[in-house]
Write a structure and sequence with these properties.
By secondary structure, the protein is mainly alpha-helical. The protein contains four helices and two strands. It starts with 6 loop residues before the first helix and ends in an 87-residue tail after the last strand.
Length: about 190
């Protein structure tokens, strides 16, 4: 399956900070990813971060760096089209994998992924960083699709990271950075 990223898509990414590329992950890769995820849900890897609900419905399962302990996810990160797509979009000769992350939210999950910008969560500086989101299930506005604020990557603002679920342990919160701003209330100001 040959994947080409058009000049128009590259320019759209540079202008908006995000771009949709459909059907770049074929069924073979989707099955391998799903199998690894099902295994991780049953027996989470070492970087698990999830939130269980009291009634057991709507759980949120997360994990990091899964490519390090699932062969199929290692292969996906390094042998699929994603590195080539990243190089093309970033107009780079080389890309490095910082990490991969799972966000598995069951229907009815009460823990929304808060509005944020990614950079403050990462231990790196610079703007030539790309996140690639792969949805394995059909996503819609009603069931929680991923949303971006067009052009927000050009705002030159970093927002204080927050935990994406409820925590009772203050040590789980992120260290406060005096150079970061509080994220504006995006949902209350969508018209802006």
């Amino acid at each position: 399956m040959a994947i080409a990223v058009s000049q128009q898509k590259i320019e759209e990414f540079q202008k908006n900070g995000a771009v949709v590329l459909r059907e770049v992950v074929d069924d073979k890769w989707r099955k391998k990813i799903k199998d690894a995820i099902e295994t991780d849900i049953v027996k989470p890897g070492p970087f698990y971060h999830g939130y269980k609900t009291e009634d057991g419905k709507g759980n949120f399962h997360g994990n990091l760096r899964t490519w390090e302990y699932y062969k199929s996810l290692h292969e996906f990160c390094f042998q699929s089209h994603l590195p080539l797509i990243a190089k093309t979009i970033l107009r780079s000769n080389k890309v490095n994998l910082l990490y991969d992350q799972l966000f598995i939210k069951e229907p009815g999950t009460p823990h929304p992924t808060r509005w944020h910008n990614d950079q403050p969560y990462w231990p790196i500086d610079g703007k030539d960083v790309l996140s690639i989101w792969v949805a394995l299930d059909q996503t819609t506005k009603e069931n929680g699709r991923l949303e971006f604020i067009s052009g927000s990557h050009l705002w030159n603002s970093f927002y204080q990271p927050e935990v994406f679920g409820e925590t009772v342990d203050p040590s789980e919160d992120y260290e406060k950075n005096p150079n970061y701003e509080k994220i504006p209330d995006i949902d209350a100001n969508r018209s802006e």
